[in-house]
Amino acid sequence: MRREERLITGVAYHGNRILKHIREDMEDIVRHNMNTVVHMFSHNDWDRHFQVMKDVIAISEDLGLEVWLDNWGLSGSPGDKSHFLAYHPEAHQIYSDGSVDPVNACYNNEAFIRFSKDWVYAVRECGGKKLFWDEPHFNVKKNAAGEKIFSCCCESCQRLFAERYGKLMPKERTDEVRDFHRYSMKRFFEKVTEYSASLGMENITCVMVGDLEKFGADMLSVPQIQNFGIDPYWFPKERPGERDPFDYVFEQTESIIRKTSEAGKDTHVWIQGYGIPAGEEDDIYLATDAAFEAGARSILAWSYRGGESHSYRADNCERVWQVMGEAMAHIRSRHVSELREKRLAARKK
Question: If I label 187, which of 19, 171, 180, 217 is the partner at 20 to 30 A Cα–Cα?
Answer without folding.
Answer: 171
